[in-house]
Amino acid sequence: MNDFMTVETLSTFAGLVAAVSIIVQFTKPLIKKNFIDGAVRIYTFVISLLLTFTFAKTGQGVQGILLTVVNAILVSLTAMGGYEVIADPLGEKTKEEI
Predict the structure, then answer these.
(1) CB 72 within 8 A of CB 52
(2) Are 46 and 80 in contact (CB under 8 A)?
(3) In terms of Cα–Cα distance, which of 87, 97, 21, 15 is closest to 55?
(4) Which residues, other chains included, contact 75 with Cβ-Cβ below 8 Å and sequence gap of 6+?
(5) For the segment 46-92, what is each residue's pLDDT rounded down to a tens digit?
(6) Do the Cβ atoms of 12 and 19 come closer than 8 Å?
């Protein structure tokens, strides 16, 4: 395999997760600087949705659209979870009290 990312790679689950993770990690500072903290999760889903519709659309009509949206949800959740496991596996989340 001589190519890093190909259309065939992007049409797989692992390829989509890798692409979403890379795009979000390089552009996340722009989103964090201009929007609230939770916007990164929405941004991840939007990137996942765009890539999934472009490279891995499944089916026709309403059923195909719904299945593609469900796949995009799975891709975005996996991409967000994968980053947490790799980048900060021992990180602890704290809840701020108001």
Answers:
(1) yes
(2) no
(3) 15
(4) 13, 16, 17, 20, 48, 51, 52
(5) 999 999 999 887 888 899 899 999 999 999 989 888 766 666 655 56
(6) no
